[in-house]
## 1
Amino acid sequence: MADLNAVKQALREQRIETPSWAFGNSGTRFKVFAQAGVPRTPEEKIADAATVHRFTGVAPSVALHIPWDKVGDYSKLSDFAAENGIRLGAINTNVFQDDDYKLGSVTNPDPAVRRKATDHLLEAVDIMDQTGSRDLKLWFSDGLNYPGQDDLRLRQDRLAAALREAYDRLSGDQRILLEYKLFEPAFYATDVPDWGTSYAHCVELGPKATVCIDTGHHAPGTNIEFIVSFLLRQGKLGAFDFNSRFYADDDLMAGAADPFQLFRIMYEIVRADALTPEYGINFMLDQCHNIEAKIPAIIRSVMNVQEATAKALLVDRDALFAAQAAGDVLEANGILMDAYNTDVRPLLRGGPRGERARPGPDRGVPAQRLPGEDRGRAGRRAAGRLGRLSSHPWRST
Ligand code: AOS
Ligand code: ZN
Ligand code: ZN
């Protein structure tokens, strides 16, 4: 039987990193539905990330994206984050937007383009030196749309060369999080398409290179918790980009599409005693809120990750291991399902029945700043309502 006080303590200590880009306007290639009151600057994104931390208590860092969060003085931005009660997290590079990258970035057949892309990776490490960030998150949209377009093997050689330059530039506790993605924007072949490719490059690079699992980056039906378990056993799981998907890299709220999968993933983390910040996995969100209010959606996502974690912490592991050792299939599955089917919402949400925070103008909870409204007042207004509904009651105990 799980020790509830230990469960509560583990949940208090959990850390979930929010993505700066999720607070701003973003959407699909078909349309970005701009929303009033969204942040216009990195500072305003950080202020919104601080609002999420204020309500959840477990989101003390915000990942940056370069160049979307480019500023003149990153030390000053880091100080601004600290003044708002949070810190800067992973630095995300972007080698997918410039026209030069049409045929790839670090794997491009043109050495000049490869140089430009690799220099951007090195620029990101320079920024980490100023922000004090540990994590350099690398995602490459590099790939091919047609067979024969370029040489698959040479592209791996080019990728390895760029990764080696970035890896050798790291210092202190800095590390690489190499993210993979099955397809998109390339459709025939992606140069880092799966966990095996990322893992192999990370092994080749050394101990400071680890894999980042984006939960939206697999073929439908992929057993993600197997990947989690394997990488944990190899000491090569560095981070998650949590989000939800129904069909592709949909970047919907974490836990919204398949909370059972999120629970199974978090069980493997708990089983490996890998939940604590000291263990070093960065539990990040990577989402896009095109049609829903952003701050409440990110709070919902953080709470969904905590809900899955709470359930995973409730698994009676002694009984489960015993049933597994005895080959008692139904008992073992039943023990896992007992934890999954436990309603942990009263612990995670305020209100008598554990109702969810339901933001929205009709419920007196502004989704974002009203047009022209001072951001500080909007944040306080949002706080007033959301805070009562979504603060974790146990945080006071
Ligand atoms: C792209 O699909 C990947 O999920 C990236 O992790 C993410 O969108 C990017 O890091 C944002 O800059
Ligand atoms: Zn991602
Ligand atoms: Zn993605």
## 2
Amino acid sequence: PWGIALEGVTVRYPNGTVGLNNVSLDIPPGSMVAIVGLSGSGKSTLIRTINGLVPVSSGVLRVGGATVSAARPGALRALRGEIGMVFQGFNLAGRASVLQNVLVGRLAHTPLWRTLLGAYRPADREIAYEALDSVGILHKLYARASDLSGGQQQRVAIARALAQQPKIVLADEPVASLDPPTAHGVMRDLRRINTERDLTVLVNLHLLDLAREYGVRMIGMRAGEVVYDGPAATATDRD
Ligand code: ADP
Ligand code: ADP
């Protein structure tokens, strides 16, 4: 897995809004980190900056061996290939099958005719099956994504991220639109992926309760700044 380091990172959007204000963090490879804060506190900016989607205005950001804050566009594209993303809204192709959705990240090196015929490479199929199995949804292989429940769709999205064989998984409010039991199931999956695959996992949450339960490091954010950094288990709302 890859580590992440920020040294005095500030992100200023073109309209002048400060998304991150002088943030320094050291996230060792294999960490599981919950980023907690109210809406507008900078959680999503942090994730999008690490993914190279939002430019660093000042400071240094290192992801894996690369200095993202000084990287060229080509290097940022390569970086994004190594990072699995999971979103609040799942971002699946609703009409496509679960298998097609999971393989979409691997199609860049698949000839078009194979894609059209569904004649995926055996190695790609193996990777997809393994990823779907690890989130308990292999039995839905040929279901249409839009026919699945929210929790099932989010697991497909996690499997899609895993099928990319990433070095880091970034999840931006992955459970915000799920009911509490389903949200817990998805959090357990993310935690298991972190431990079993030794993958660095960052997950944005707006609920402190959810962060507390999974024995992870918590980074609390407010107004673009880190206001808490330590075990989630002992964090309180005042932190
Ligand atoms: P969170 O994910 O915690 O809700 P965000 O990172 O989305 O917080 O937002 C942090 C701050 O940056 C907020 O003030 C928000 O309005 C602002 N912001 C986010 N995205 C943009 C953007 N594309 N352009 C300008 N301001 C933005
Ligand atoms: P695990 O080994 O269980 O995957 P970590 O190695 O990420 O977890 O962290 C173990 C504990 O130490 C967590 O509870 C976390 O809160 C805390 N922790 C780890 N690194 C830091 C750090 N740099 N700053 C604050 N707390 C940390």
